[in-house]
Automatic annotation (TrEMBL):
GO terms for molecular function: ATP binding; phosphorelay sensor kinase activity. This is histidine kinase. It comes from Corallococcus exercitus. GO terms for cellular component: plasma membrane. Residues 230-257 form a coiled coil. The chain crosses the membrane at residues 53-72, 171-194. Residues 441-468 are annotated as: Disordered. Keywords: ATP-binding, Cell membrane, Coiled coil, Kinase, Membrane, Nucleotide-binding, Phosphoprotein, Transferase, Transmembrane, Transmembrane helix. Residues 191-245 form the HAMP domain. SUPFAM superfamilies: ATPase domain of HSP90 chaperone/DNA topoisomerase II/histidine kinase, HAMP domain-like, Homodimeric domain of signal transducing histidine kinase. It is found in: Cell membrane. It is a multi-pass membrane protein.
């Protein structure tokens, strides 16, 4: 590629970092916050925490009821039984006093039945009813022996449960209502306790997705621990945003500053060449300038991936391939599409950089480009691959060539070819950013095939820059 053929698309646009997160950036950020929906992780954490708090509160309430009932039974049960025995003894003695007076006996039975609303039957030792108050008592709820000294005169049978509340649920209902009210209040408390966690999870997800302006904003009712945690998170996010903004600004400034002297050096070498300078020296200077310019381009493209600066748009894979071949000075006839479905959503600048790197790698290390192929890779992916005419890959190089700064060292041709060891590593990063993967293999007929896949529907997850 000659220096006179300048391609603006080769230099990614690195936006200036926001100072103070300006008005437009804040509006854009709040728009993203309104559009943000709780992810699977946040929903799981929120639901799990609320459910656990709710169940724990319910168990605590039930255990409290049982413990209180047990304690009341221990402290008041003996007293209740003693009072019951005293009442039974009192009633038995009253009937023993009037046992020999039928009229008084009948009057006492009717009085107890009317005053206490109890069905009463008084029987003698043979079981015959000698007095009755109320309805017949078939299944007595209480049986009181009528004793005179140590001799039993008869038995008093009392039925009172039938005249009381018909449903035992009426006795349990107040307790059930109290438990339900307490458990409902526990649900509200658990929701209130889980809400700050939900806010922190959402802010963490936004920061992890590249929205560096994400902050955790808790209401004034948040507990002290959550407020401290939110403050620590916001401080961490602010530091990360500032450091990355400073790094981006420095990278952009250095890159642009380097491009200017490089352009001047290239112009000077052209002037010296025209003026009769030493061609070999000029070629060496020109090669170093090209290498530095390529390094700047690789760093700029890498910085876009570091900061999530992907701008997907509708593209044609065939057009991208033809443009890449033209940029490296190769014939468009090397493009061999093997599928009709060549539409995809991708970042044109980054994808073009990846194709140029593949073609440059084939020219420098593969003795020339045999073909640039477009192929289907499953239903969702499209594959770009470059076939070369070289000796192929060494054992283990199928993965090592994608490592940063890895150079093929065969007689020192790597340095002479101007290899930086970053081109294929960048190809792999671009492929992964587009939901694909890089690959390399030897061809059966000789040479190597190096390429990458991309997702046709576009990069997975949020790809646009929220600060742009």
């Amino acid at each position: 590629m000659g220096w006179g053929h300048w391609h603006p698309e080769e230099e990614p646009c690195i936006p200036r970092p926001p100072r103070g997160f300006g008005r437009h950036a804040r509006a854009h950020h709040h728009h993203h916050r309104r559009r943000f929906h709780l992810g699977r992780l946040g929903s799981f954490v929120q639901a799990r925490l609320r459910r656990r708090l709710f169940v724990m509160f319910g168990i605590t309430i039930l255990v409290t009821v049982l413990v209180v009932s047990w304690v009341m039974n221990l402290t008041g049960g003996n007293t209740w039984r003693q009072e019951t025995e005293r009442a039974r003894s009192f009633v038995g003695h009253r009937f023993a006093e009037v046992w020999d007076a039928p009229a008084a006996r009948e009057s006492l039975v009717r009085g107890i039945s009317d005053d206490l609303d109890v069905d009463v039957e008084l029987t003698d030792l043979s079981g015959a009813v000698v007095a009755r108050g109320g309805s017949p008592c078939a299944k007595p709820d209480a049986t009181i022996p009528v004793m005179r000294q140590d001799t039993q005169l008869g038995t008093l049978h009392a039925c009172y449960l039938q005249t009381r509340s018909r449903g035992p649920w009426r006795a349990v209902l107040p307790l059930g209502i109290a438990v339900l009210v307490l458990w409902t209040a526990a649900g509200g408390i658990s929701f209130r306790l889980a809400r700050p966690v939900d806010t922190l999870v959402k802010a963490t997800q936004e920061l992890g997705e590249g929205r560096l302006g994400a902050r955790a904003s808790l209401d004034r009712h948040a507990t002290g621990e959550f407020a401290v945690l939110a403050e620590s998170f916001n401080d961490m996010a602010a530091r990360i945003e500032k450091q990355l903004a400073d790094q981006r600004e420095l990278l952009a400034a250095v890159s642009h500053e380097l491009r200017t002297p490089l352009a001047r050096l290239r112009v000077l070498t052209e002037l010296l060449r025209d003026g009769g300078g030493n061609p070999r020296t000029l070629d060496q200077v020109d090669r170093e300038v090209v290498e530095l310019d390529a390094l700047v381009g690789e760093l700029l493209a890498s910085s876009r991936l570091d900061f999530g600066q992907l701008t997907p748009k509708a593209l044609e894979a065939g057009v991208l391939g033809a443009q890449a071949l033209e940029r490296v000075g190769l014939s468009a006839t090397l493009l061999q599409p093997e599928t009709d479905d060549v539409a995809l959503m991708a970042d044109a600048t980054l994808l073009g950089r990846a194709l140029v790197n593949l073609l440059d790698n084939a020219r420098k290390h593969g003795v020339g480009v045999e073909a640039l192929r477009l192929q289907e890779h499953g239903k969702e992916h499209l594959a770009f691959s470059v076939e070369d005419r070289g000796p192929g890959l060494l054992p283990g190089e199928e993965t090592r060539i994608f490592q940063p700064f890895y150079r093929k060292d065969r007689g020192g041709e790597a340095r002479e070819a101007g290899s930086l060891g970053l081109g294929l590593a960048l190809v792999q990063r671009i492929a992964r950013a587009h939901g694909g993967e890089a690959f390399a293999e030897n061809r059966p007929g000789g040479g190597a095939r190096v390429g990458f896949t991309v997702r046709k529907a576009g990069p997975p997850g949020p790809a646009s820059n929220p600060l742009a």
